[in-house]
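Researcher:
Attend to C-alpha cell order:
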Amino acid sequence: MSEHVQRPRILFVDDEPAVLDGLRRVLAAQARSWDMSFETDPLRARARALENTFQVIVSDLRMPGLGGLELIAQLKQAGCPSVCLVLTGTGDMEAALDAINRGGVFRFFTKPCSAETVRQGIADALAVVASRNGHGLALAALDRMPFAAFALDRGFKVLFTNRAGSDLLKAGTVMRTDGGGTVRATTVAETAILHQTVGATATDGESRVVALTDDDDCRYSALVEAAADVGDGAAVLLFLREMDQCRVPAAAVLEKLFGLNPSEARLAHALASGFDIREAAEAQGVTLSTARTYLKRLFQKTGANRQAELVRMLLGAVPGL
C-alpha cells in the first residue's frame, strides 16, 4: 500500500491482555492495510477515541469501570462517528441484541470467534464507513465551515456533527446532550422551543429559524432543515451560528441588492440577524401587521417563499460572509 494512502484506523478494547494479544496475532496479516491500536483500559480508550478518529471500534462488552455498551453510548453522545462492534459471551446475547436494535452497535461477535469472522466483520464496518465517505468532500467542507452542523433524529438525538458542532457540544454553553443523549438548550423554555421546531420540521418538511442563547446570553441563530434525503435515520439538519459572527449585510446593502425600500431593508436586516417577525416589528417601531406587509413584499422581491429561505438568501447575498 502506498505510504501516501491513509490506512483506516481500528481500535480494539478489552480489559484482558490475552484477548488483545490473540487479536493482534490473528489479524497480523491486516497490519499492512489497517492501522490497529489495542487498549486494555476502557476509560483510556474513550479518551483516545475522542481525541483521534477511529473508523471502527471493537470492544468487549463487560469491562470494569466502563462497560462496552456504556463506552459506545458515551462516544455516540459526544458525536464520535466510529462504527462500533462488540465482543460478547453467550450469556450477554439479550443486551447485545438490544444495543443493535437501539442503533449504537453495528455488529456483535460471540466469544470465542474465528479470526475470519472478526476480519469480515471489520471489513463490513469499513464498507459502511466508505459508503458514508462517499460525501467525503462535503463532510470535509462542513468541518471548515464557521458554524456548527448537526443531524438529529426524531428523538432529538445527534446522529452526526461537524467539528464545530462537536466542540460546541463538549463546551455545553449553547446546546448539550443529557444522560440519554437528547439535545437540550440552556433553558427549559428554549429547549421546548427547539424540540417543537425540530418536531415540526421533521413532520411537515418546512424550514424554520429559531434563536438560542448561551450561558453568557449571547444570541445564536439556528436554522432547521428537513433531512428526508439524508438517510441514516436523520429527521432534520440543524445549523447553528453565533449571530455576531454571521456578519449580516447592512440594510443599505440589502436595499441595493434586492431593490428594497428603506423600511423593507431594515426589516430584512432584522430577520437575517435572528429576530422573529414580532421582535423585528418592535425594533422597527411598526405594528405587527405592517411588518407582515413588508415581509410579503420581501418575498415578492427576493423570490423566497418562506422566512427561513429568505434568511438564507439574505445571509448569502454577499460572498465571504
